Amino acid sequence: MAIIFFSYSHRDETLRDELEVHLAMLKRQGFIETWHDRRITPREEFDKAISKNLEEADIILLLVSSDFLASNYCYDIEMQRAMEKHEKGESYIIPVILRPCDWTSAPFGNLLVMPTDGKPITKFPDQDDAFLEVVNAVKRTITRLQPRQYPTPPSKSYGSAVKPQILDIPRSSNLRIRKTFLDRDRDQFVEESFEYIANFFENSLAELSNRNLEVDTNFKRIDANHFSAIVYIAGKKATECKIWTGGSSHLFTNGIAYSSNASGSNNSINESMSIVDDGHALFLQPLGMAFFASQQNVKKSLSQQGAAEYFWGILLRPLQ
């Protein structure tokens, strides 16, 4: 049985969880076990537990994003040790590009990354397609490991040709069925999307300030459901916004709202995102109130990153 180690930033935990769900069949068949730091028990020492499981790993999934690259622990400790093990033939690395970032110059930049051509998972119209590519890469990697690591599951007998019969079985990849999303699913998606957008704005504001000496920024968590962002140029307020979830105005009842006034009331909005689905996944859809709204984005289903970029574009419009 192969041990898979997830190296990731906690800000990408939702995507990590989704990938682990897609690996469920390999778990059921007895081919893999997965481990990540959320499995650490209160009695274990954090660093020792990570080091132990990293050393025992056969396959190391580097879940790459800007947060992963910025994390000293992920980049300097986990990734560096993973590369050493990979170069010695002690384990295999599969870099998985979760979100757009500057990964090509990283030490793993010359390895085969997933999804194909390094297209970030969040850029796929249907992220299930991207996760399936990663699962297939894991299957291919399993076939390169020693056969002794993969006992035949006790409930079935596949003879001596375990790998081709289990890992290369011909079948369709068109296996999705329509799903009904309940109120709880939508509410949870709103919460997760709001947190993603908040983190996106906080990081983007910091980078905007770092790259422009005359720019100062302010990110403020007003409460669990509201945050504000302000950009100053040469000390003068140049653009601002407030973003929040929920609401009870006649214009906005659920989803995520945007106001160009950081201190305005919830009854005044300049744009909002509603929750839509295509029968398979949930997305965010702009109402189209922003005067500069791109026709290619309005009324289209956006990922969490797409929605964050859309709101960010409204904030930066006065500066561009």
SSE layout and pairing:
Blueprint: E1 2-7, H1 13-22, H2 24-28, E2 32-35, H3 46-56, E3 59-64, H4 66-70, H5 72-87, E4 92-97, H6 127-142, H7 162-167, H8 183-211, E5 215-223, E6 226-233, E7 236-245, E8 256-259, E9 271-277, E10 282-286, H9 304-316
Parallel strand pairs: 1-2, 1-3, 3-4
Antiparallel strand pairs: 5-6, 6-7, 7-8, 8-9, 9-10
Helix pairs in contact: 3-5, 8-9
Q: What attributes does this structure have?
A:
4-stranded parallel β-sheet; alpha/beta; Rossmann fold; 35% helix; 6-stranded antiparallel β-sheet; 2 domains
Helical amount: 25-40%
Write down the Rg. Answer: 22 Å
Question: Looking at CATH, which topology of the largest domain would you report?
Answer: Rossmann fold
Strand content: 15-25%
Can you tell me the overall shape?
Answer: globular
Compact description:
35% of the residues lie in helices and 20% in strands.
Describe this structure in words.
With 320 residues, the protein is of the alpha/beta class. The chain folds into 2 domains: 2-167, Toll/interleukin-1 receptor homology (TIR) domain (Rossmann fold); 183-319. The chain contains 9 helices and 10 strands. The strands form 2 sheets. A 6-stranded antiparallel sheet has the order 5-6-7-8-9-10, with helices on one face. It has a 4-stranded parallel sheet with strand order 2-1-3-4, sandwiched between helices. Strand 9 and strand 10 form a beta hairpin. Helix 3 (46-56) runs parallel beside helix 5 and helix 8 crosses helix 9. The longest helix has 29 residues, at 183-211. Mean pLDDT is 85; it is low at 147-166 and 291-297.
